[in-house]
Amino acid sequence: MAVTISDIAKKAGVSLATVSRVLNDSGYVKEETRERILEVIKELNYTPSAIARSLSKSKTNTLGVLVPDITNPFFGEVIKGISQIADESNLNIILCDTDDNKDKELKSLKMLTEQRIQGIIIMPTSVEDDFNSEYLKTLENMGIPIVLVDGHVKYSSFSGVFVDNIKGSYDAVETLIKEGHEKIAIITGRMNSKPAKDRFIGYKKALMMNNIEMEDKYVFYGDYRQESGYKYTKEILEMEDRPSAIFVSNNMMTLGCLKAIFEGNFKIPEDISIISFDRIDILDTLGLNVSYVNGPSVELGKIGMKMLIESLDENELKEVKNITLIPELVLRGSEKLIKR
Questions:
Q1: β-pairing verdict for 219-221 and 184-188
Q2: Start-to-end C-alpha separation, the chain
Q3: Alpha helices in 144-225 (DSSP H)
Q4: Phi and psi for 112 in degrees, rounded to 5?
Q5: CA-CA distance, 145 to 310, in Å (whole number)?
């Protein structure tokens, strides 16, 4: 009976795709794995060129990356981390901006499938309330490693790397409370996303642990977009019983928040205090010292890509790994309470 590629893969303890990459000299394979495969080929008295003719050569050393909003500096930093590891491993990337839209994400997935990519990193859209069977079926049928970064896919079980959003928001709100703030507003993210829900949980937990009752009038449901941060901050500033501080659930809404504050000729922190979730580099350039929860964005990208490469090389498709990174609270003075 003729020896098949499956026999080689089984004897070497690797996947068919890994054997294919070695024989076609394309894609990333650990050196020790490459040597083991070549040893098995030699042992079975076949030359790589003879076996290669029976292999599909449609695979490339290209990976797909889906991002919900390429204009958001946070995701730009994640992509930076992904690219650094990809470059070190001689891997190419096809980047797709899904505009935080599930239909666009599905379209991108189908396009990437046609491109014969080896694996994919998904920073999922924030929408989780509507189950999309076609979307999940597309993911499951791709037959390649998938790693999630900073977001979950409902009803799925993929490996991923995430931020501890509950702790990040808890630390921010507790810091405001320790400064003396009792009336603290929150502008949430889109509440059909897990990160937004977790950040809201952290907000409520900090209030509860400090014996402060949460008031619905101080909760404003945003959508991660700059416009919602602007809109709700204007409403907050016009309140008769105005809060002394605002916790904003992401960087883009914080930009809108700051626009509303400055348009109204309010000062930070003299008139209103603020802490943002996620860093905004341009604020440093402008000399605006805004405190923030720093989600380790570049590290998210690096770890996500390393997880994907590990799956590519060792075919660990069924082993689900979840890594959670702890964010850091960076205080710049905007959290201070100035008695009015």
A1: parallel
A2: 87
A3: 165-178, 194-209
A4: -65, -35
A5: 9
* Buried/exposed code over 225-258 (b: 16+ C-beta within 10 A; e: otherwise): bbebbbbbbbebbeeeeebbbbbbbbbbbbbbbb
Assigned token pair, 120 = 């994919």
pLDDT tens per residue, the chain (340 residues)?
Answer: 556 667 788 888 887 678 777 776 666 778 888 888 888 887 876 554 444 443 444 556 889 999 998 889 899 999 999 999 999 988 999 999 998 888 888 889 888 877 878 889 999 876 655 556 677 777 777 778 889 999 887 777 889 999 999 999 999 999 999 999 999 999 999 998 889 999 999 999 999 999 999 999 999 999 999 999 999 999 999 999 999 999 999 999 999 999 999 999 999 999 999 999 998 888 877 878 999 999 999 999 999 999 999 888 654 445 788 999 999 999 999 999 987 6
CA 288 to centroid of chain Cα atoms: 26
Domains and CATH numbers, the chain: 5-52 (1.10.260.40), 62-163+297-325 (3.40.50.2300), 165-295 (3.40.50.2300)
> Which tokens belong to 4?
């098949």
Pairing relationship of beta strands 291-294 and 328-330 according to DSSP bridges: antiparallel
Residue 260's nearest CA partner among 180, 187, 174, 338 is 187
Q: What is the largest CA-CA distance in the chain?
A: 87
For the whole model, what pTM was predicted? Answer: 0.78
Q: Environment class of residue 152 by beta-carbon count within 10 Å: exposed (0-12), middle (13-18) or buried (19+)?
A: middle
Joined tokens for residue 292: 């923030």
